[in-house]
Amino acid sequence: MTDRDLNTNKAVEIAPGIYWIGWAEKDGAFRSNPYLIKDGDEVVLIDPGSIPHFPIVLSKVMQVTPLENIKHIILHHQDPDLCSNTPKFEEMVYGLGGSLEIVTHSRAWFLIPFYGTRSEYYRVDENGWKLTLRSGRTLRFIFTPYLHFPGAIMTY
Questions:
Q1: Smallest Cα–Cα separation from 89: which of 65, 109, 107?
Q2: Could you give the angle at which helices 54-64 and 86-95 cross, rounded to 10 degrees?
Q3: Which of 6, 48, 89, 134 is 20 to 30 A from 71, alpha carbon to alpha carbon?
């Protein structure tokens, strides 16, 4: 399969249970890459994106899972192109009776609430740089303070 064969208007499964749910604008200033991990009925949303792209990301999430299954939103850093959608997803998940936590570094935790988030925070640097899902699957976090922001992380 080549890039030309991909339908980027839909969620793209890049590995079993792992989806790219972003957008591909040829002339866009930013190209953020939101992802979704579906681990049974526990869903992890990674860097959900910006306000202008919320309808695109929401549509692709809904192709893969019910919104109330989102239990974690991982934010690799605090910039709006990666995480300004977070309160919109919270509103929808909470409106359906679900709940979630925001997973990030303590440095980003100081800034992300300014978007209007309301969920509990899971600070990776205070939790052994990992998050274990109910299935036993463990997501590990790599600290990358010199790549973009002093609290930047990556998920492995």
A1: 65
A2: 40
A3: 6
Which is it for strands 35-39 and 42-46: parallel, antiparallel or unpaired? antiparallel
* Cα separation, 130 vs 135, whole angstroms: 14
The model's pLDDT over 100-144, given as tens digits with 9 standing for 90+, comes to: 999 999 999 989 999 999 999 999 999 999 999 999 999 999 999
Nearest by Cα to 89 from 111, 109, 60, 110: 60
DSSP 89-140: HHHHHHHTT---EEEE-HHHHTTGGGG---SEEEEGGGTTTEEE-TTS-EEE
Alpha-carbon gap, residue 86 to 114, rounded angstroms:
11
In this structure, which amino acid lies at residue 3?
D
